Amino acid sequence: MLTACSSPAQQPEVLVADSSLGPLTPRRDLSELPRRGRVLDRNDSVLVATRSVYLLTLPVRPPLDSAGLNRLLGWRDSALRDRIAAALPYEGARPKGGVKLLLTNAEAERVRKRQKEWPMLRLTQQTMRTYTTSTGAPILGYAADQAQAFLSSAQRYRRGRFYRLRNGGVESYYNGLLNGRRGARHPLLDSTGQERGTWAADTVFQQSQDLHLSLDTKLQAYAESLLGGRKGYLIALDPRTGEVLCAVSAPTFAPGTLTAPDRAGTRRQLLENEDMPLLNRPATLANPPGSVFKLVNAAIALQMGAIRPTSGFRCDQSLINCVHHHPRPNNLTVALQYSCNPYFYQVMRSLIDHVPDSLVADTVTARHANLATWRRYARTFGLDTLLGVDLPREQAGFLPTPAYYDKARRTRNWKFRSIYSLSVGQGEVNLTGLQMANMMAIIANRGWYYTPHFVRSVGTDGPLPRFTEKRYTLIDSVNLEALVPGMIAVMQRGGTAESSSLADVGITIAGKTGTVENDEGDDHATFVGFAPAQNPKIAIAVYLENAGFGATAAAPAAALVIEKYLRGSIAPKRKRSEQRMKYRTASYQREHR
């Protein structure tokens, strides 16, 4: 006789049946339960791990000697009050189980030694995900099972669904690999204990994997110190590998906030903050890129033969306003150096309005075909499509199609004048921060890229296979090379970002500034670039909301991050600019603490 009884997958059982042995006797399969893997940075410093922590439970109803408890724990006079405020979901709340505060090992030891003097305090120990860093919150994310308090409150809030879908980070994306899988055998035994097949498919044990990120935590912390008090993002990656070096979504917050049991009040403040710090801006927000998009338009125009590097156009401000006073743009390099709007208006017009001999009598069809070709080339920069980065809920951005304009203009007979905003990266064009940084990697590499990614190695196996596949654009390398002299000139005397040059420390940046018109407030500032120009090791994109000109707001931040990465320190002449940015961040954090 063969007998078996199934049991939950976590604890499979084998039942042996034999009348001479009496009742059925279960025998447990002692399979190993994998421990959730760690998250480390590119220098193998542990950022996230599963560890034992101590929770101090305060009495539901005071009185409590706050001053005495502060002294016991070694806290400043107002620390207990601030910690309780951060722990309560709203002012005046009285949690049924009492207020729980996380303690360090040293603090817990102090309480344990004097427990008799504080009988109203309860000290417990539990295992949870802990963060050893205060940076990179949208990238690290959270384990969903430990963020239930946040997810529940987010569901009840008006923006909750939006946040819930977009904030899991690498902890969510790589959840299966971090968790591993418990192995189990399901043998079918006869009355003599001999195996006679199986009653269910075996489950192979899979060890949990550590994630080795590409993030440089020192660079991440430095970039956050510059941008933390603004709204926007900064993305830097290594164009040679596609590894993301730092990714700032500002305003910033500490990664442990969404899972810590004593931060309910802080989570509520983050949900209600009008600056929306819980958004992962570089991956999930697509915005008009502004003048930095002139690089893509110029590359496509060169590829399609609409212009040559030596092509010149008059700075005709009857076509479109040009905010820079500059010499006549007699070639592409000068036009990029001064970001001449009328020049790129005419570049795009030459591209869209070109009528081949075969369509000489049908200009409508020619415009449709040219716009479709423009879009096909632009999409090979990784635009209007998901790049496939290793973060959940990446957005694709948008590039308009001929059919889109047919519907929007309610006619097929639209003219270039009705879509000219494409020439300066405005209107319907929308890119994410990751796409803008990847766009720079493509130009830095003169036509190819690896998909940007945050995990450089899963265990010891390297990144996921798709991140090692080299991808190419449809733009010839010679046409991308033609952009570089103008990008270098942007950072030189007379260029739109000359004040952010790093020539004094021997670093040549190839860059492009941009200013995005905003009908609802101050304009947005953008900057993209890579360095060193002839041997690129870092590509960068900066987008600062309501910050004004890209040359005065975004470019200085990018230059500081580039210098910090390539040199490890900041030259004295830029220290004042650095301190000014850090002061603004510190002021914002004090106001929103």
From TrEMBL:
GO molecular function, one term: peptidoglycan L,D-transpeptidase activity
Domain Penicillin-binding protein transpeptidase: 232-559
Any single Gene Ontology cellular-component annotation: plasma membrane
GO terms for biological process, alphabetical: cell wall organization; peptidoglycan biosynthetic process; regulation of cell shape
Keywords of this entry: Carboxypeptidase, Cell membrane, Cell shape, Cell wall biogenesis/degradation, Hydrolase, Membrane, Peptidoglycan synthesis, Protease, Transmembrane, Transmembrane helix
Boundaries of every Penicillin-binding protein dimerisation domain copy: 34-195
Highest taxon above the source species: Bacteria
Compartmental location: Cell membrane; Membrane
Family matches, as InterPro entries: Beta-lactam/transpept, Beta-lactam/transpept-like, PBP_dimer, PBP_dimer_sf, PCN-bd_Tpept
Pfam annotation, one family: PBP_dimer
Tagged with keyword Nucleotide-binding: no
Membrane topology: Single-pass membrane protein
SUPFAM superfamilies per record: beta-lactamase/transpeptidase-like (SSF56601), Penicillin binding protein dimerisation domain (SSF56519)
Keyword Protease: yes
Main location: membrane
Record Gene3D superfamilies: DD-peptidase/beta-lactamase superfamily, Penicillin-binding protein 2a (Domain 2)
Name recorded for this polypeptide: Peptidoglycan glycosyltransferase
Source organism (scientific name): Hymenobacter lapidarius
